[in-house]
Amino acid sequence: MKIITLIENTAGSHGCLAEHGLSLYIETSRHKLLADTGASDAFLHNAAVLGIDLGAVDTVILSHGHYDHAGGILAFTRQNPHAKIWMQRCAKEAYYHKNADMEKYIGIDPQIETLAQLNCIEGNYTIDQELSLFCGVKKRRLWPSGNLELKVKRGSRFEQDEFLHEQYLVLEEHGKKVLISGCAHNGILNILERFRELYQTEPDVVISGFHMMKKTGYEKHDLEVIREIALELKQTHTVYYSGHCTGELPFQILKEYLGNQLHALHSGNEIAIG
């Protein structure tokens, strides 16, 4: 299995672009797929630089209904109108970043709903023996505090986003299980617990943002939560790749605890598994 970071917040090798977004290109024995498409069409440029033929992609997984993961889908479909796109049905709702000083729409482009190759699902779904999707993460232990400013607008009312639209991709090949989550809004520990319930084991590899980034600075409680998460992740045998919404300081703290168990994502970098 080969996984290449097509777009991420930080530039890596080969002169690839970076933006606040995430997109992964994945090759398995059966599939060539995308997990998210970044915030814009920048990932298309990076794919060309890296020599990746996106016309050969057969599957696109949208992790959740935010623009920085779905912003490139429409541009991708102009190059590849055949790849099936999978997302949770409620990913099409109106999602906002809202606080006392701002109100910003962060949902997906409504045109995505009109795509013929779009498959909207509700709940867990098995695509085939290599690819499966799960959701239903309801626990809120050590829930990312940045979530509190993320809302869903229903009618004229803003409600707390409970991230029912967040789904997780599981890749299974040659006895390895890889878990891919866009932002882990539901909390990486809660997601891992749900994974263990469904698959009766731990993932060998996790690729995910951890949504620990904060623009307003970190309070003592925030740092304590990050350290507590790090201690629990250290008890697993899993190897973690993270970036995007994790944040520089949280990544540094996690790295202190996890060492070689944690690696940074950068645009253009490749992960070989198995």
Model description:
The chain is 21% helix and 28% strand. By secondary structure, it is an alpha/beta fold. Helix 5 (220-234) packs parallel to helix 6 (248-258). The protein starts with a strand and ends with a strand. The mean pLDDT is 97.
Strand content: 25-35%
**Uncertain segments of ≥5 residues (pLDDT<50)?**
none
Secondary structural class? alpha/beta
The average pLDDT score comes to 97
Cα Rg: 17 Å
* Helical residue percent band: 10-25%
Provide a count of the helices.
Answer: 6
What strand line-up does the widest sheet have? 8-5-4-3-2-1-18
Order of helices and strands: EEEHEHHEEEEEEEEEEHEHEHEE
Q: Which outline best applies? A: globular
Q: How widely separated are the two ends?
A: 6 Å
| Sheet of most strands | 7 strands, mixed
**Count of beta strands:** 18
What descriptive keywords fit this protein?
globular, alpha/beta, 274 residues, 6 helices, 7-stranded mixed sheet
What is the gist of this entry?
The chain is 21% helix and 28% strand. By secondary structure, the chain is α/β, with parallel strands linked by helices. It has a seven-stranded mixed sheet.
Describe the protein's topology.
Layout: E1 2-7, E2 23-27, E3 32-35, H1 42-50, E4 59-61, H2 67-70, H3 73-79, E5 84-88, E6 94-98, E7 103-105, E8 118-121, E9 125-126, E10 131-134, E11 150-154, E12 157-160, E13 168-173, E14 176-181, H4 188-199, E15 205-208, H5 220-234, E16 239-242, H6 248-258, E17 262-264, E18 270-272
Parallel strand pairs: 3-4, 4-5, 5-8, 14-15, 15-16, 16-17
Antiparallel strand pairs: 1-2, 1-18, 2-3, 6-7, 6-11, 9-10, 10-13, 11-12, 13-14
